Amino acid sequence: MKYSHKKNEHQARKRFGQNFLVDRGVIELIVEAIKPEKNDNLIEIGAGQGAITGPLLTKCPRLSIIELDRDLIPVLKDKFQQYANLEIHQGDALKINFRKFCTDGRPLRIVGNLPYNITTPLLFHLLGFNECISDMYFMLQKEVVDRLGSLPGQKSYGRLSVMIQYYCKVHPLFLVPPSAFNPIPKVDSAMVLLQPYSSPPYKATDLALLSELVRTCFQQRRKTIRNSLKLILPDRRLKQLDVDLTLRPENLSVEQFVQLSNQMSSLL
Fold first, then answer.
1. Of 117, 118, 226, 236, which one has the fewest beta carbons inside 10 Å?
2. What is the residue extent of each domain of the chain?
3. What is the pTM of this model?
4. Does the pLDDT of residue 231 top 70, yes or no?
5. Over pLDDT 90: what percentage of the chain?
6. Residue 111 · residue 66 · CB < 8 Å
């Protein structure tokens, strides 16, 4: 079944960061990567005009959509009215409790062409539901995908890299040119797969402390970690840490951040 994409249907809104995917080849690549199946618990964030929604529905007729733009709700309802098991939720994904979609024990599979302006807060929001999520396929700004998979010592390595990699395996999939969207964005995009761990390879004893540690360190990324740790631990406790305090945060691996956080937890 084919789904037409009429450019006149809805004017993209800058305040929602809307760039609608229109390239059929890219859409096919996305669906091929996701491999949706009939009984999947699939959620699409930011369906837009339904470019990905249609192909997903042909393989997984039980689909839930979260769309912020109220004006797009009737467009989606009209376009996909033949799908009785399609659920359309108007709302802000940043405020959604994703556990409500996991009531029957089926893990969530989350898909989205995410607006660039909410990418980081939304990813952090979703990490709070990682135990309910099987995998996440997102179209993001290429720069963000680079940050997600960055390694220590790389310029793009930072807070987002550490926290995402603590919770998930990161698999960059393929690049998407600006011409694949309408309106055409000024940046390159990329598709990424995030797979939450059932059990993290390095276990933090205090997740809130780990998050505070990573955030504090990368707020002063050009300074040694001693400067950041002083904001969390008393000076006399710093000497008890088994870590080189002259390192910069960009030199610490995810495992080292977890080890440091666990040491700090025992001293607080």
1. 236
2. 14-196, 207-267
3. 0.90
4. yes
5. 82
6. no
